[in-house]
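Please review this one:
***
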Amino acid sequence: MTATVFKAEGLTKTYLTGDVAVHALRGVDLELFEGELSVMLGPSGSGKSTLLNILGGLDTATSGLARFKDLQLTGIGEHELTLYRRHHVGFVFQFYNLIPSLTALENVALVTEIADDPMRPEEALDLVALGERQNHFPAQMSGGEQQRVAIARAIAKRPEVLLCDEPTGALDSKTGVLVLEALTTVNRELNTTTAVITHNAETRKIAHRVFYFHDGRIARMEVNKQRLEPHEVKW
């Protein structure tokens, strides 16, 4: 049996916009397993990012339970959530958020300075096939290369989970494939539990499991009996 990394039960999230209640999550039940790469699909506003933010400790649920291994995420304080994010979670977003005045190596090294058991920044960049670009600044790199630097930065602290929100959203298909290859390499070689939000339905073919979101709920889940490599996906 593969260990459960995340478990959500009856998870809800309601935002108040003036007098209007917006139900972002409407009772989500979910399990994510150790070493699994999952893809989350669905239209904008269907709850994907809200769920990922709660699992990553960036947001809190209105009701229900969310657990990371033996740690109950729902109900703990901001300090505990900060420590949880620092020690266990890596994030990759659509926008790279690199520091322009630092090289790729220096951007990655920022994270390793506060991690308990980091890998060398050079090792993290090698893992995403950017070892030869380590001394380049963000302005000297393509969008795909900058996104791979962001992935290297996220994995350099050896997080147990990697949460990715539209990591290929700002990229063309050829560049997006390189980013997906970096994510699948990290998942395979480091056994990092990885969840990827995307609007590109074809990306589902690289996943172990696919979750389809609709109107704040998981409408269905499917298992890929035969996964494709990123370069085999037709965009």
